[in-house]
């Protein structure tokens, strides 16, 4: 890694309102977030949605700080002219440790080229006090025409706007090259039907926000898994958008390759599919889960007496 | 109002991490929040849940800063010894103006006596730049025994802990003394059935957080109201708690007294009931809605051309 990730406490005072700023020769955007009481769940650790929201927020603020925000939400001025928007096609996240209430996390994000017509955005989330890495994420984005809803090449004018911001670095999460299988409704062991966007789930484009998809995917994970395990990593493939009228189903299958039974210690792997009731795939996903209290990196530890 | 509400910009630098601090001779707790992209909805303004979360967060941080937090979530050391927790019984909120993405709001909160065995907590939310009041809220809390789940008087030892923090002030929202009617299932025009807490809706006590109730209540408001109006005030009466196994129904009736039809300009009043499927009441509520773009204080303005 070519970057110097040591936390810089005195610098943080430059950002008293927590709105973030550009660091590292203008290529990395950094923002701190304190974890609030309403962002933690039953485990007293920050919820997945909170962590994913921090990623989304820094991505948008990065564009804004770099002067790359046109009238749209994350689109550059040239993209706005051409009715282009960014859509995420792939997201990989590794959760090493979950922060808890009162912790301050530092989120660093930057972009790179991804193939000929894509952009990769990486994030590195660390504990602002100790510098310990908490979460790593890597995502691929392409352009879509807002009117036709078809994918588009990156026009030269847009490339000229964004290329100066590209870093030349490897992804922070190595690409998971295993194919994501298409789950079959008849195969899926756990199904949540009739999921409908709430009014409050819609973003300013009247679309369901990517982060909500993740909530729905985890929704169909079996309760014994949620109770005994924590998400250690996930790979998501976004295949179609859904709107406010959509009715969704969330399917989950626990893989045969999972070690141990659900309520016991052992790593668990799940396959997921979020689809429209009529069958169109919205998101395919794969998640890995480690036993709670196992600490980071799959080091299986003891369950504290109070929760045993 | 005995307090001086002028915003004090230079002070804010004392709180670079946005964790808040005690001001006003030790009786008022103040914390700033910047509104993030994922906290705004389709209208580009902060969601009700976000605003209510800010109230919850400052209430807890107030107790923490005052050294009144035992092992529990908002309970004092003496309360912990006696297995007592705070439960909210009534909440009144007035939304004068909704903040938008990037705004920094200042939340002030303080407590007062409420009758013999209650505590009132007030909040005043203002724009940190201009000092304009955005939201006012007033709530009543009583004590419950965590084991028996029965209400309790305030024991003398607890009173000794909390009384030094009581302010002698009028509520920031005048009490709405109109009775909240019990909605009948057969009467209710809008019903959302089968609402179940998601794993992520549970707090550290494995209970559904008060703020989630509000989301469910607004869930059954008719879409034409949500599309054309914004919540201007609400009164809630919390009658029973619900746990993770609960299945709920959210009922709403638009009052006859509402002016104009739903999709037209005019103030709207709704009655709400959140209940268990078997009938037990969880929350009764009443909400007032004003046309969008009407600005504050019911001043009906013009709808901008782009959204007409």
Give the secondary structure arrangement, pairings included:
Two copies of one chain form a homodimer.
Chain A lengths: L20 E3 L4 E7 L13 H18 L11 H5 L2 E12 L8 E11 L3 E10 L5 E13 L5 E2 L3 H7 L27 E6 L14 H10 L3 H6 E10 L9 E7 L13 E9 L4 E11 L17
Antiparallel strand pairs in A: 1-2, 2-4, 3-6, 3-9, 4-5, 5-6, 6-7, 8-10, 9-12, 10-11, 11-12
Helix pairs in contact in A: 1-4
Estimate the helix proportion of chain A, in percent: 10-25%
Order of helices and strands of chain A: EEHHEEEEEHEHHEEEE
Q: Structural class given helices, strands, pairing of chain A? A: alpha+beta
Q: Distance between termini of chain A?
A: 40 Å
Global mean pLDDT of chain A: 81
Oligomer: homodimer
Poorly predicted tracts of residues of chain A: 1-14, 296-308
Domain count of chain A: the total is 2
CATH topology of the largest domain in chain A: Thiol Ester Dehydrase, Chain A
Biggest chain contact: A-B, 41 and 41 residues
Largest sheet of chain A: 12 strands, antiparallel
Domain Acyl-ACP thioesterase N-terminal hotdog (chains A, B): 26-161
Function (chains A, B): Plays an essential role in chain termination during de novo fatty acid synthesis.
EC number (chains A, B): 3.1.2.-
Main location (chains A, B): plastid
How would you describe the overall organization of this protein?
- Chains A, B: Plays an essential role in chain termination during de novo fatty acid synthesis.
- Chains A, B: One of its GO terms (molecular function) is fatty acyl-[ACP] hydrolase activity.
- Chains A, B: Its EC number is 3.1.2.-.
- The structure is a homodimer.
- In chain A, helix 1 packs antiparallel against helix 4.
- The relative contact order of chain A is 0.13.
- In chain A, a hairpin with a 5-residue loop joins strand 5 and strand 6 (about 135-145).
- Chain A starts with 20 loop residues before the first strand and ends in a 17-residue tail after the last strand.
- The longest helix of chain A is centred in the N-terminal third of the chain and has 18 residues, at about 50-65.
- In chain A, strands 1, 2, 3, 4, 5, 6, 7, 8, 9, 10, 11 and 12 form a twelve-stranded antiparallel β-sheet that branches.
- Chain A has about 300 residues and is α+β, with helices and mostly antiparallel strands.
- Chain A has helices spanning about 50-65, 75-80, 155-160, 210-220, 225-230, and strands at about 20-25, 30-35, 85-95, 105-115, 120-125, 135-145, 150, 190-195, 230-240, 250-255, 270-275, 280-290.
